[in-house]
Design a protein that fits this description.
Blueprint: H1 2-9, E1 15-18, H2 19-29, H3 31-36, E2 40-43, E3 48-51, H4 53-69, E4 78-88, E5 91-100, H5 132-142, E6 146-152, E7 156-164
Parallel strand pairs: 2-4
Antiparallel strand pairs: 1-3, 4-5, 5-7, 6-7
Helix pairs in contact: 1-5, 2-4, 4-5
């Protein structure tokens, strides 16, 4: 709950941040769990945007941790992070896609997963309270962006974050 409330209350001023650097920091911070799970985390070039660096760190960390947490028991996790940009109504928007090969989820539940305390997997095998994705949504909204999810049971998940260029 503290992380969720901090996503708005302790926001830092926006500054120009190379998201590739933030992503490298997150991967370094999670290196032990990545190694222990025999995961492969790859990312392409990320944009430099005016964002809250701490919040972007939290966003990437939550998304990668979820991919590791909900990994498929019969294969090593592979997490791909890519970006692209497009101009919509005269404004450049950047899409950041975080895709994994984990256990996935029922696509009909995609909107529910961003609610506080909502957990799609109730089997008791996974730790957590169901606030990680709600925190991600709060961070993305603060940056005037959107976050959505696509998934298929047994095939993996894809999270799409769209952020404006300021």
């Amino acid at each position: 709950l503290l992380k969720y409330s901090r996503a708005a209350a302790e926001a830092s001023p926006l500054s120009s941040v190379p998201l590739s650097e933030v992503l490298d920091e997150v991967i370094d911070d999670l290196s032990t769990v990545i190694s222990d799970s025999r995961a492969e985390v790859r990312h392409g070039e990320m944009p430099t945007l005016r964002v809250d660096r701490v919040q972007m760190h939290q966003l990437f960390q939550n998304l990668i941790e979820n991919a590791l947490k909900y990994r498929h028991p019969e294969r090593s996790p592979v997490i791909m992070i890519e970006s692209s940009s497009e101009v919509v109504n005269g404004m450049r928007r950047h899409r950041i896609i975080v895709k994994d090969n984990g256990i996935g989820f029922d696509a009909a539940q995609s909107n529910r997963m961003f609610r506080m305390f909502a957990r799609l997997h109730q089997d008791g095998d996974q730790e957590g309270l169901g606030i990680g994705l709600a925190t991600c949504q709060r961070i993305v909204r603060r940056h005037e962006g959107t976050i959505s999810a696509e998934g298929e049971v047994g095939r993996g998940s894809t999270f799409i974050v769209t952020l404006p260029e300021r």
